[in-house]
Every structure is written in structure tokens, then in C-alpha cells.
Amino acid sequence: MHPEDKISPAFEPYLADSRRRDKHEAVVIYQAPPAKHPRSREELRLAEARVAYAAEQAALHKEVESRIVDRYLDSGEDSLLPRPIGNSALPVLSVEVTRQTLLTLAKQPDVIAIMPNQRIHLIKPEAIAYDELARGEMRQGTTWGLEQLGIPEVWATTRGAGVNVAVLDTGVFADHPALAGRVAEFVLVDPLGRRIAATPAFDAGAHGTHVCGTIAGGQTPEGVHIGVAPDAKLLVGAVLVGDATLRTLLEGLDWAIEKGADIVNMSLGFSYYEPMFTEVFAVLLGQYGVLPVVAVGNEAQGNSSSPGNAHNALTVGALEKIGRNRTDVAFFSSGASLVFPGQEPNTLVTKPDVVAPGVQVFSTIPPMPRGGGLYFYSYMDGTSMAAPHVAGVAALLMAAHRKVPVNAIVQAIKETAYHPRGNDRRPDNRWGYGMVRPAEALKALASA
Q1: Is 207 an annotated catalytic residue?
Q2: Which of 29-38, 67-76, 387-396 is predicted with the least confidence, judged by mean pLDDT?
Q3: pLDDT (tens digit per residue) in 77-123
């Protein structure tokens, strides 16, 4: 690969007003050999084995990091600061660069991509409503999203036990009654990338708690089920606190790998397209068997958020219920068909991959004083309400088929999805492959 091809195009506006020797923080992705005794794909489906493998891999990563840093400092810019990210489960490194040293760094044979450490932002809900439960949901005992996806039918086979879902978001109010016993790990990653152990677990907003409830929540006081995979465990990283950056997110991903995550749910994005982030997802999927589930964004058709538009993310759009019996893709749900010349694969990429309920989703929130009382639940709209439905579905499938590799889980989710205009229209940039159908995906995996 030519050294200039390793440098993210996002550097162009980032350095536009920069002087030759101005310093900027960058994130380096490097290549490293697999651990000397790689574990089998079957074994890596077990969280304990994956944690041990991550520790083995981290030792090799640190050797490569030392080589990169030594060569970089030998280039003459010894005032520039290299810093590790996390404990090196991911092959990433934070480095200060200037216009002068960026290309020098890219010429190193171990380096495969360099990205600017820019801000990331929450994909905020389109609407929040503190309404009482709808009569239909009270009557059926589940939220409309769970009913629409046929989740109660699947619970006879699987409820997500033994699967760890990492939620990288605003945090979680772990003391919520519907989340009791479900938050296994919590960490705050501050804007400087430092991991801070915080007790009790908290939510800097309400978004993360709402997402957690949809993935693995229990029942409301009225007995209504809200979580897709109620027996799954939640690993919550509060990475969207203050001025969060790409480095903050990578620190959270590194932490999630170390804690044995099977799935990572992300409702966040960059203000630019970042083609290099596919390399991070490639490590998650190919090396650790961890599935990234990402909201596509709320900017309507013709748009998509990064990293949700990475070709190897499982990207989710939002469905809304229209009347009693019809659903359609919500007007705000993003979607686009994209070609990225020079990137792999150099073909048309269509996002989202699938859709799921994302409008009027009832779930948990931290206690919110309103109208003289406290609210512990709310309705929210957004693709970030749809993504946790799919993360929960993936947890159900993984729990039922522990030996199945992650790419087969993704394939089953896509191929069994329902598109209202037929399979020959799949994928398009509104429905993707269609609405996820967990029961059909279970059948497909059982017969594979």
C-alpha cells in the first residue's frame, strides 16, 4: 500500500489551517501477528477464552507499538507524544503528528491506517415522550417492538443467557428495577481517554439507560416486557461524557474486548466519513468474533453516519408503526448507497443492513422529575432505539448457537429479514435487507 493511502482523507480539512509544525493527535491502526497459539473459532465463542486470547494478543501488540514509537522518535520529532490506547487488545495507538511527520509515520511498514482524533457525538433521539404505556402494550404484555419482531415466540428457545452485550453510550442507571442484576460491568471513559471506575453506575443523560432496557431489560411495574434478551449481561462503557473523541471510543472498545463482549452496541457517529474505521471492525469481527451493531443515523434518506456506513458494521435503520397493522421506515431514518474508490471492497455499499422498531420505543430511563412525579420509563424515537433491538436479537441467536461464528449470525439476520417488496429488491437504502425476523433466523441457523 502506498503510504499516502494509509492517511485518512479526514486529515485534509483537519489540517487545512494548520501550520507546518502544529501538533495534532492522531490514531494509528497497525498490523500485528496473531497470538502464537491462536484459539479456535469455536473456543473464541466463549467469553473466558476470548479474554485470555485478548491478553495474549495485547502482549504482541505492545511489541509492535514499541517498534512504531522507536522509529517515530528516531525520525527527529522526539517532542511528539505517543500514547497507548487501553491495554492494547486492539492494535491501535495514539500519536501526536505534524504535517511534516504524518507521512513519515505512514511510511512505517507496521502502520496500516492513520486517523485524526476528532470528536464523536451521540445519535440523539428524534423525540422523547413521558407518556403512560399504550393500551395495546399493556394488553399484550410486551412493547410493540418486541411484539412486532415475535420475540415472545423466540423466548421458548433462547433468552440470551451467557451472552455479553457491550453498550458504548452515555452510561446506565444500573439501579433501575428493570435492570436489576443485568449490568455486569461499568466504566467511565473521560475525554482524556482515562478509564475511571465509578460506583454506582450512572448515566450522564438518559440515552444509555434506554438502550440497555431495550437490549436486556425486564418488566415494568405493570408487567410489560421491554427487553429483547432479558437474560443477557450488559457491559456498559460511558464513552459519551463531555467532549468525546475517536480515542475515547477506541478506549471503550478495547475495554469491551477485555471484558469478554460478544456484541457491541453503538449509537454514535462522526461528523465526517471515516473509511479507515473498517480496519477496527475487521479486528473485532475477524480476530475476536465480536459483532458491532451500529445505528445508521437520523438524517433521513441520502445520508448515513460513520461508523455505521462502514461496510462491515451491522447497521440498523428505524421502523415505525402506522395504524394497527402496517409498518414503514421512519422518515428520519438515514440510508444511502455509497461507493468508496480505493477502499475494500471497492463496490457499492448500501446502508442500513436491516431495520427494526425505532419509533415510540418504551424503555428504561434514570428517574426523571416531571409534573410533580418521578418517571422511570419513557418513549423515544430514533435509529438508536432500533439498533438495541437488533443487538438483543443477535444475543438471542448467539445464546442458542454458541458454536456458530459471528459472520454466520450476521448472514442469518440479513437473509431471513422481511422486505415488503420482495427479496429481489434487497438490499436498498431504506429497508436494507428488511425487518429482522428472529424466529426465522433461528430456524436458518438450526438447519445450516
Answers
A1: yes
A2: 29-38
A3: 656 778 889 899 999 999 999 888 898 899 999 999 999 999 999 99
Residues near 264 by Cβ (< 8 Å), separated by ≥ 6? Answer: 165, 166, 167, 168, 253, 256, 284, 290, 291, 292, 293
Predicted structure pTM score:
0.94
Residue 329 has pLDDT above 70, yes or no: yes
User: Considering 8, 94, 304, 384, which one is annotated as catalytic?
Assistant: 384
**Block residue for cell numbers 420505543:** 361
Asked whether residue 208 falls in the same domain as residue 83, the answer is: no
DSSP track, 185-219: EEEEE-TT--EE--SS--BSSSHHHHHHHHHH--B
The residue out of 117, 143, 177 marking a domain boundary is 117
Q: Is 22 a catalytic residue?
A: no
* Given the residues 24, 169, 267, 333, the one annotated as active site: 169
Q: What pLDDT is attached to residue 123?
A: 93
Neighbours of 180 (CB within 10 A): 11
Of 176, 207, 389, 401, catalytic? 207
Residue 169 a catalytic site member: yes
Strand partners, 301: 335
Is 28 found in the same domain as 157?
Answer: no
Which of 99, 117, 135 is the C-terminal boundary of a domain?
117
**Of 33-42, 74-83, 207-216, 362-371, the least confident:** 33-42
Residues 105 and 247 in one domain: no
Q: For residue 302, what is the domain's CATH number? A: 3.40.50.200
Number of domains within the chain: 2
- Give all strands of the β-sheet with 127-129 in edge-to-edge order: 127-129, 373-381, 361-370
Instruction: Give the pLDDT confidence score for residue 221 in this predicted structure.
Output: 94
Domain of residue 10: give its range.
Answer: 3-117
Answer whether residue 39 shows pLDDT above 60. Answer: yes
pLDDT digits (tens, 9 = 90+) for 185-211: 999 999 888 999 989 999 999 999 999
**In a shared domain, residues 328 and 269:** yes
Task: Please indicate, yes or no, whether residues 166 and 151 belong to a single structural domain of this protein.
Answer: yes
Digit-coded pLDDT (tens) for 267-288: 999 877 788 899 999 999 999 9
Same domain, 265 and 357: yes
User: 296 and 340 share a domain?
Assistant: yes
CATH number at residue 67: 3.30.70.80
99 and 154 housed in the same domain: no
CB-based contacts of 235: which residues, under 8 Å, 6+ apart? 164, 165, 166, 167, 184, 185, 186, 256, 259, 260, 261
